[in-house]
Each structure stands twice: as C-alpha cells, then as structure tokens.
Amino acid sequence: MISADNLKLTFGKGTPLENPALRGMSLTVNQGEFVTVIGSNGAGKSTFLNALAGEVIVDSGRIEVDGQDVTRLPTHKRARRVARVFQDPLAGTCEGLSIEENLALAIKRGQRRGLTSAVKRSYMERFRAALAKLNLGLESRLGDKMGLLSGGQRQAVSLLMASLTPSSILLLDEHTAALDPKTAAFVLELTQDIIAEQKLTALMVTHSMKQALEVGDRTVMLHQGQVVFDIAGPERKGLEVKDLLDLFEKQRGLEVEDDSLLLG
Amino acid sequence: MPGLLQPCERPLMLSQIAFFGAVETGLIYGLVAFGIYISFRVLDFPDLTVDGSFPLGAAVAAVLIIAGWNPWLATGMAIVAGMAAGAVTALLNVKLGILNLLASILTMIALYSVNLRVMGGPNVPLLMQDTVVTWWDSLLPPEYYFLAPVLLFVVVTAIVLVLLWRFMKSEIGLSMRATGANPRMARAQGIATGAMVVLGVALSNGLVGLAGALVAQSQGAADVTMGVGVIVIGLASLIGGEAVISPTSVLRALLACVVGAIIYRLAIAFALNADVLGLGAQDLNLITAILVTLAIVLPGFRTRVQARMTRNKA
C-alpha cells in the first residue's frame, strides 16, 4: 500500500521560471490495486512518480509505503519497497552489462550487497524461467550484453527486473510510450500478466485515455498538480474516452487542449 | 630484441637493462592504469587526483621506511593514504556538488602541499634502506640484479589484477559498475550511488598510491615532482591497451591496462633509444601526447577503412 497526502513541490522557487508541479496531490493505492494515471503534459504525472520513488523530495506533505513514512528517504533507501520501470527503454538496464548481470542487480534490489559473486549459479534457474516467459529466446542468451537487445526487448527485461523481487508498489512511467505499436502492445500485455500473476500493487502513468480505461482497475486523472478525478469499480466499467473527456471538462470547466490525450 | 638472459654484446635496439627497465616501469604503471580504469571507465569519473596521490604514496612509504617501518607495512600505509586522497575528491563531488574534474584538481593541488609536509622537503632519498625490492635482490644472482624489481612487480600486479577482477564480479563491484553506467537505474535498484563513487575513487587512488610507493622504492627516492603527468601516462596505457585488447569483459579490460602500460613504456624506450630519431628525454611529453593521440584515433580509423572496403565490395 502506498499513500500520498497533500504533496506540494515547486521547481525553481523564487526564480522567474517558478513552476508548481505538485499542488496538494493526495492519493492512496490499496494493496493489490492496479491504478492507471492520466493527465496532460505538465499535469505532474512524472513528478508525482519521481516523488514516490524518491528521485525528487517534496516541499511538504507525507508519503507512506506500507505505513512507513518515506517522505524524506532517498531513492536507494526506498528501493526495497518501490520498484520502477522508466519511460526510456534504455534507462532501466545497463547496456554494458550482460543480461544475467542486470538480473543479478535486480534480484538484490534494496538488499545488502556483499563481496560474494554477484551472478550466482543458484540464480540461473530462476533467471531462465523468468526470461522464458517473455518468449523472446533470451533464456539462452544470459551472457549477452544488454546493449545487443532491441528497445522492446530491453523494456520487457526491465519489467521482469522490477518484478523479480517483491515490492509494495510497482511504478510504471509511460513505459510503453517510446515503443512501436506492436512492441508496446506486447509490453503492455506482459505488464498485465505479471501484475495479475504476482498480484502486484501498481501505478501506471499513460498518455492514452483508451489504455487508461482498458487496463487496470482504477483510473486517476491529474491536472495542475492535483487529482481531479478518481474512478473505479462498475462506474468505470462502462466508461469510454468520450465520457472521460466530458467528466474532465465538467470537473474543471476547461477544454482539453492536449490532442495527444485523444489519440491512441 | 636481445637474447633474454644472455648478456648482449651489441644492443640492436634496446639494451637488456633498458628493456627490463621499460617492463618494470610498465608493470607499475599497469597499477596506475587499473586505478584510471576504475575512475574513468567503471565510474565515468574523470579523476586527476592521481597526479597528487602517486607522489603521496611515494612520500608516505619513503618517510615511514626511513622511520624504520617494515617496508611492506609502509607500502600498505601508502595505499591507505592514496585511498584517503581519493575519498576527499569523491566527497567534494558527492557531498558538496563540485564538478568531478574540478574536485580532483582541487585535491591534486592541495596534495602538493601535503606531500611537501609529509616529506619535510622536496624529496626523501631511500639509499641503503631496506625496501620491498631489496629482499628480492637477495633471491637473484648479483649479475641479474636488474630483474629483481621486475619479478616483484609481476607478482604484485598479478595479485592486484586477480583481486580487482574478483571484486568487479562481486555484488558490490557490480553495483559500482552499474553506478557508472546508469546511476538512475542503480539508485532504483537500491544502490547508494554516492557511496559507490567514494569507494571507487578511493580504491582507484589507493592503487595509484601503491604504484607511487613501489616506484619510490625501486628508484631509491620519493620526489614531490614525480607525479607530474601520471594521469596522462596512465590514460595512455589504458587507451593503448584497449586498442590492442578490446575490453569486452572486466578481465580483458584489466589485462589491457597491463599490456597497454608495458607497450607504452617499450614504445617510449625505443623512441628515446633510436638515434636516427634524435629524440631525448626532454621530448618525453611530446612523444606521450603523440602516442595517446594515435591510440585514440587509430581504432576509429581502422573501422572507417573497413567500412569503405565493404562498401566497395557491395
């Protein structure tokens, strides 16, 4: 479970470029919930995820993971509970390291590391089994450098790495946005499978309203650093992109100007 | 090349002593290249501290040996001193947010004063002192005295190479490699990237301090100016080695450091030895700069030529 309470964060405070990214963002994600997050550019989606992960520290407010206050903790101290997949397929893995070395880094996420060999023989079976599920033939290429893989393959492995050890929340930051449509569909399907199979708690930022409604079991829309609506259950079932837009306009009395929200 | 162990009558290119002298220095600079591999390649942290930590290692070892310490213990303290210098650079960068290159220049400048303080003057001679080299001298027949440091440095370099290789394959070593390659990903995996930078830069300068201590003992003196250009020589060794042995794995990268350092030293020795070229010791830095440039440019040139060849075939 993760809860954010009244998060506020302003970039470039006291400068002409002052930008309030979070203006009282509150959201609680319950155990086993799969929440999709939408919002136009500048709504604060990425900042919110970065705040949850610890990449940025909020000015005020409180973040709890499993009841523990993590508001001031840096990223690496939250990593045990918070798993993450980035938008950039190249960002989640190290291209100079082999597939098995990348997985070995992930299997120790948030745990103490010592001087024993990083890639242990006892991991191999687990790595192979996990990679085999991707159906990309990677289970026989454990020693290959990550850089030899395509963007889609690397994103699939990133997803695998994020789910290799248990987490309290999995943060997905538009992780299919930089992929071609076919690969994006593959990675999205994989995401749903993994989340369902391991009963993960997940927060997925997406740029596509359609995707936000089709995937997961709750949808949250952000606007100007706040949650403007939060919809789940039967109410969400019958909803279409058009309804979502109407809802948004009604809530805010605003026209949606960002075309990219309508596409996809 | 002269016959390896027979006294040679007419040195064709390099005298035996010059040859082994080059190998000896090459092996020590292999240690420097290991250090530079850790900072420049593993951590992506351009670190010039080495120009100060090299004479620091020499100074600490020399002063302690003069004070009657066991030379091995004194050499160990030189490693510790080098690590401390590296840690200062890394902390300036990680904790105070000073640009890495600038942080290392600050430490390097500061070390010049520190080294003068440590030695109480610009140099400390080690003549007639028991050093790590003298024990090896006694193992060999007197006419092969010049081989003693070579043997010692082969052993030291080999041990360091194996230890470093195992370390880079360990959980902490892998975390360090991830920190340099992709810090954002490393943090997301729970790696304290700041601590890894401190550890890595400290380790790097510890190795350079070791090299400085060994040079002081094999040459019989520590001198405050002996660190000038160590960074360039180390980089030349690293880049030259990578041009010969492509560093596709950690082991190959480490071997490249040693091979590069020896090739570099031999190349310098040949260049200075060949009378036709008319070069002298004063040209050393110019030759180094030319060699480094060639080592950087040649591999790229080779791929360009290959690309042209395949294009012509098609």
Automatic annotation (TrEMBL), chain A:
The ABC transporter domain, residue ranges: 2-249
Keyword annotations of the record: ATP-binding, Cell membrane, Membrane, Nucleotide-binding, Transport
InterPro entries reported for this sequence: AAA+_ATPase, ABC_transporter-like_ATP-bd, ABC_transporter-like_CS, ABC_transporter_ATP-bind, P-loop_NTPase
Pfam families the UniProt entry points to: ABC_tran (PF00005)
GO cellular component annotations of the record: plasma membrane
GO MF annotation: an example: ATP hydrolysis activity
Lineage: superkingdom: Bacteria
Record-linked Gene3D superfamilies: P-loop containing nucleotide triphosphate hydrolases (3.40.50.300)
Signal sequence bounds: none
Its membrane topology: Peripheral membrane protein
Compartment annotation: Cell membrane
Assigned protein family: Belongs to the ABC transporter superfamily.
UniProt name for this protein: Putative ABC transport system ATP-binding protein
Organism from which the protein derives: Marinobacter segnicrescens
Automatic annotation (TrEMBL), chain B:
Membrane topology: Multi-pass membrane protein
Source species, domain of life: Bacteria
GO molecular function list: transmembrane transporter activity
Stored CDD domains: TM_PBP1_branched-chain-AA_like
Pfam families with a match to the protein in the record: BPD_transp_2 (PF02653)
InterPro entries assigned: ABC_transp_permease (IPR001851)
One GO term describing the cellular component: plasma membrane
Family of the protein in this entry: Belongs to the binding-protein-dependent transport system permease family. AraH/RbsC subfamily.
Official protein name in the record: Putative ABC transport system permease protein
The organism of origin for this protein: Marinobacter segnicrescens
Biological classification of the source: Bacteria, Pseudomonadati, Pseudomonadota, Gammaproteobacteria, Pseudomonadales
